Amino acid sequence: MCGIFGVITTKSDAPSQVFSGLSDIEYRGYDSWGIASFIGNSFQVVKNIGFLPKKLTLPKANLSIGHTRWATHGGVTVANAHPHLDCTKKLTIVHNGIVENYQDLQKKLKGHTFVSETDTEVIIHLIEERMKTEKSLLRAVAVTFRSLKGLNAIVVSDGKSIVVAKKGSPLVVGKSKDGFLVASDPNALLPYTKELLFLEDETILEMNEGLSTYGVLDLKPFKPSFQTVDWDYSASTLKNYPHFMLKEMYEQPQVLRNVLQNLDGIKDLAKVVKKAYGTYLIGCGTASYACLLGVYLFSAIAKKHVNYSIGSEFDYIEDYLTDKSLLIAVSQSGETIDVIEPVTHAKVKKTTIVALTNTLGSTLYRMADIKLLLQAGPEKAVASTKAYIAMQANILLLSFAVAGRLEEGARIVEKSAKEVESVLKKIPQIKKLANRISAADHMYILGRGLSFPIALESALKIKETSYIHAEGFAGGELKHGALALITTGTPVIVYVPNDETKEAVLANATEVKARGAFVIGVSFQNNSAFDYFFEVKDTGASSVIPHVVFAQLLGYQLSLKRKINPDKPRNLAKSVVVK
Ligand code: AGP
């Protein structure tokens, strides 16, 4: 979703820093962009629709703010792209979030000229108005920010300072040797500094030659607590890969081994799960399928019932939460609004919150009572691969830890890491399969038991990378409706692991084959029901890990064949921070 990058520096390269910062946060998804730089006595703005150019000649300036926009209020037009200016062109703003009451606020503004359809432009004219009565930019921004309804992060400048205020949307400040930076993603700050300040909600700060931080409601000053991170910037760059998605899939064996280095955190969490009166797993999209897998794993391994919900539905069914419940919120970004909102409500009920996230310092991380990092490293492709694998591994290990069999769990995760390596070696085989099925309009994926969530996740991966309509079904549901969709040549992927589901899912494979489907069997052994066989060695309950890697690679190859950039699927953003 929208990205922010701002710089105030003693050097004159602020605009080029902003340009390269915006390039680093491109992965979040956007449809237009813009950069405002303070030159002489006013702001000069360059903006456009579409993606950032590879190169851009920018003026020299000490202060610059930029934005990548994902349209919400108003279409994708140059006028709607941020930064926006006030009437005098001496104030500028970039904004993430939605101002729910912007129409009411706009009605109160008299004599201002609006050039866009955005809620953001209303904010900058409100600040312009406030500057007439308040003594400083900081106060004018604070008063205005308090009048905004909704979850918003704003970065405002008058050319002398940058003022930042936030509630809900993520923002991180960096302190470099030449000045200060602000961004929506900490990784984008790493080329300049490793000293980072993760901003809490309801804070406002001013950056000029120094940095001052305050509560936005009362303007009470507080001491900022910067953290020095040891992250490697190159981990979030493409290196020699053509796409982040491919790079991230190749990193998966190492990610699994990283997870195995953190068994203490898993053991500690297992103790908490054992004591809880009800454990609930929530997440969105891919993370929700990891949560659903948790229900099956906890039942099969730990003989324990845990509940699951997609994040956006949890608020409607969470009346049973108490101060003795445990809510495990699973999120790569730690910023997904449909996870943050139910967590906020659960906190009111004093439910213990666990963050299973990839992002240190994220909103979810900061809100949680117990924090377990996914250990996947920065993930930039919109289609989640290595973070999902890390979710699977952590949840699998947790179920083994609750059963008191963590070592056994660790052994099969290690085995699955080796099997992921073998699957990655079979890319040419998957490429051939992709060529064979790339013209399909529909595709179905069947699994039972542990493989049912894998079928759902595989379908999502194929949808978002190839735009082929793919749907995952529980094998048992076929005769309850889905079988009507099968016609001659319909590709159907069938997961056949060496477990209790084998016979029944093979029967499903035979049923779809009898209706003309092209059956793609993903299994430890071939079967006459398969038209195409992809072998994945049996690693027990962890077979779900290499199985899903097959679907990730197939999605990737389908995207290439269909001339789609797998890293930037249309209409999707990496981090969904607005409802
Ligand atoms: C993953 O492939 C998807 N793009 C998407 O479903 C994603 O998993 C979802 O938006 C949740 O994101 P999170 O893990 O950052 O919360």
TrEMBL record:
UniProt protein name: Glutamine--fructose-6-phosphate aminotransferase [isomerizing]
Keyword Transferase: yes
SUPFAM superfamilies: N-terminal nucleophile aminohydrolases (Ntn hydrolases), SIS domain
GO biological process, one term: protein N-linked glycosylation
Transmembrane feature ranges: 277-298
Keyword Transferase: yes
Organism lineage string: Bacteria, Candidatus Daviesiibacteriota
Annotated organism of origin: Candidatus Daviesbacteria bacterium RIFCSPHIGHO2_02_FULL_43_12
Pfam families given in the database record: GATase_6, SIS
